[in-house]
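Deliverable D4.2, example record:
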Amino acid sequence: MSRLIAFGCNHTYGHGLPDCFDPIANTPRLIPSRIAWPHVLGSLLNLPRTITNVKTCSPDASNTEILYKILNFKYRPGDVVVVLWTHLLRDVIFNEKNLLKYETSNTYNIGQKVGPDIEEDSSRDWINAHSLFDCKIRAWMNVHSADAYLRTKNVEHYNFLIEDEAMCNMKNIKIVESGKKITLRNNFWEELRTEKKSLDGVHGGANFHKNVAKAMYQDISQIRSTQYSIICNINSYIGG
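Output generated by the structure prediction step:
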């Protein structure tokens, strides 16, 4: 059975959507939303099953955390992987206690989350140690690592960026230029600014997720069509 496996952060988890939000605690629930873009995209791609759980996406996940989950997921033949890479200025500091708990239970915390939105000493130290440029390079390294790994597994996969402008306005840097060739970019950040917000007032609402899924579907369909055309041309050339 073919599956869509969706990796990402809040924007993939569906934080703030009605079926994934605790209005009293103002926190996400432990089960990702079925209204979020992965399930919409899965239907558009006519895939019988869509996988979103704490092993593929989680609130406030960094790109490093997303890569960790990609590397540790058990894939099956026929799987289609779609990754929505997250914001640059966040990270995770792995620790043994959290990681072992994550590996053996239904929790999405794999370590100490750090970044400008987290007011802790560890975040302040992290901010002092990392520049925006450094975060961009690290993000592209994560994309490259995920792409290379999924190729070894022969898994059909597609990469998207939530912050395409922030990551792509760098020129003449080899890892960035080569990364642009393996990553599909859409202005999801602008979409997030203009569409109605979810119940938490921060993340995208239902229309945002529908628009993201449609844009992804169009890009994926175009790539698939191009690849099919190349295969047909090769078969024609060799007399297949």
